[in-house]
Structures are given as structure tokens and as C-alpha cells.
């Protein structure tokens, strides 16, 4: 790994929670470091759709500038409650229990980590949530070396849409040999 192996204390606590809950879809370190790096360049409101056990929010909070805030929504009320506890001493992070759409009232976002599968599939939904210049982050892609992008023998139309939609300037970035992320800046 070409990055420090230590992770910020809140990330470590969120990963512990993931382990205790058997939650296997937590954000991986490479994506987390990217989230922290992008968060450091943002002002205003950053958001995450799909909190899980709080790993993504913890990475965002490790980079976020003073004065900016992070809102995150988790559908599973038990997970949301556990993560609210985790961030009880972190006033810059607010975790909402319920559907991601509860966060619409905080839009537009300067950064949006889209980690709910159905929303990832809708460029239209995300475009309406972003401020101009805001960055949408979508993870969990398998790197594709072709155009159009191929996944499991088929054209990956979701990725194709993200990389060609005129409302965004977007790029697929490999964060590890087996993982890529789409960064899409709203124009
Ligand atoms: C891939 S996991 C999130 C991982 C998390 N972002 C992290 O950094 O570790 C997706 C999460 O989205 C939640 N979810 C699914 N549908 C949702 C919805 N409609 N609104 C909010 N959260 C949702 C799931 O319960 C699950 O915890």
C-alpha cells in the first residue's frame, strides 16, 4: 500500500463498529483517503447518502475545513443510531435516520458521496442536489480499460452516463488495482 497504514481515530472507531455489526460494505481506506482529501477543499455542506457504520463520514470529517459541515442519511434505524452515538462529540457531522431524500433540504452540496445504489444510477437526481462546482463521488467500480466501459461482459451504462453527461465534468480514477471511483464536478 502506498499510503500511511494508520487511519484517523474516528475512522478506526467506525471500522470497529462495522466489524461488530458484520457490516462488510464499509468504505475502503483508499476511497476514504480520497474523500478526506476532497473534503479539505470544500466549504458549505458536504453530504453522504448511505451512512452504513459511519466510515465514509469519519473520513470526510478527518479532512473537512473548519466551518463546513457534513450531513449523512442511513435507512437502517439501528445503524443510524449507532453512528449518531459515534459522532456525538463531533458537531460538524449530523447523521439522519431515514431515506436519503431527507437530506434534500440541506442541498445544494459542495461534495456528495453517493453510496446508495439506486441513487448512483440516476445522474438526474444527483445533478439536482449539487451546487455548481460541487463534486459527486461514486465508488465501488471495477476498473475498465475500454470505451465504452465494460463490466461482467456488458457495457456499464451507468458508468457511461456518468462519464458523458453534459452537466458534469467527470473522470474514473483507479484508487487500487481492483477499485475505481468516479469523480464528477457539477458545471
Ligand atoms: C455501501 S453501504 C454504505 C457504506 C458507507 N457509506 C461507508 O462509508 O462505509 C450502503 C448503505 O446505504 C443504506 N441505504 C440503502 N438504501 C438507502 C436509502 N434509500 N436511504 C439511505 N440509506 C440507504 C444501507 O442501509 C447501507 O447501510
Give an overview of the whole structure:
With 187 residues, this protein is an alpha/beta fold. The chain has one domain: 3-Layer(aba) Sandwich (Rossmann fold), CATH 3.40.50. Helix content is 33%, strand content 29%. It is built from seven helices and nine strands. Strands 3-2-1-4-5-9-8 form a seven-stranded mixed β-sheet, sandwiched between helices. A two-stranded antiparallel sheet has the order 6-7. α1 runs antiparallel to α3 (55-63) and α2 (29-39) runs parallel beside α3. It is globular, with a radius of gyration of 16 Å. The structure holds S-adenosylmethionine. S-adenosylmethionine binds at residues 25-27, 48-53, 55-56, 73-76, 79, 99-100, 115-116. GO terms for molecular function: methyltransferase activity.
The CATH homologous superfamily: Vaccinia Virus protein VP39
The number of helical runs is: 7
Spatial separation of the terminal alpha carbons: 34 Å
**Whole-number radius of gyration?**
16 Å
CATH architecture verdict: 3-Layer(aba) Sandwich
Amino acid at each position: 500500500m502506498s499510503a500511511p497504514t494508520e487511519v484517523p481515530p474516528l475512522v478506526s472507531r467506525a471500522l470497529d463498529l462495522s466489524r461488530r455489526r458484520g457490516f462488510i460494505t464499509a468504505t475502503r481506506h483508499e476511497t476514504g483517503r480520497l474523500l478526506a482529501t476532497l473534503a479539505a477543499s470544500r466549504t458549505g455542506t458536504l453530504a453522504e447518502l448511505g451512512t452504513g457504520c459511519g466510515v465514509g463520514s469519519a473520513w470526510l470529517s478527518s479532512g473537512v475545513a473548519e466551518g463546513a459541515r457534513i450531513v449523512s442519511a442511513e435507512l437502517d434505524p439501528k445503524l443510524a443510531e449507532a453512528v449518531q452515538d459515534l459522532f456525538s462529540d463531533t458537531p460538524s457531522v449530523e447523521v439522519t435516520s431515514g431515506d436519503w431524500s431527507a437530506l434534500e433540504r440541506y442541498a445544494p452540496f459542495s461534495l456528495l458521496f453517493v453510496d446508495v445504489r439506486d441513487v448512483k444510477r440516476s445522474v438526474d437526481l444527483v445533478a439536482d442536489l449539487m451546487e455548481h462546482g460541487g463534486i459527486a463521488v461514486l465508488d465501488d467500480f471495477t476498473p475498465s480499460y475500454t470505451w465504452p466501459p465494460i463490466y461482467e461482459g456488458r457495457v456499464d451504462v451507468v458508468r457511461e452516463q456518468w462519464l458523458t453527461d453534459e452537466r458534469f465534468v467527470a473522470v474514473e480514477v483507479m484508487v487500487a488495482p481492483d477499485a475505481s471511483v468516479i469523480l464528477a464536478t457539477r458545471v
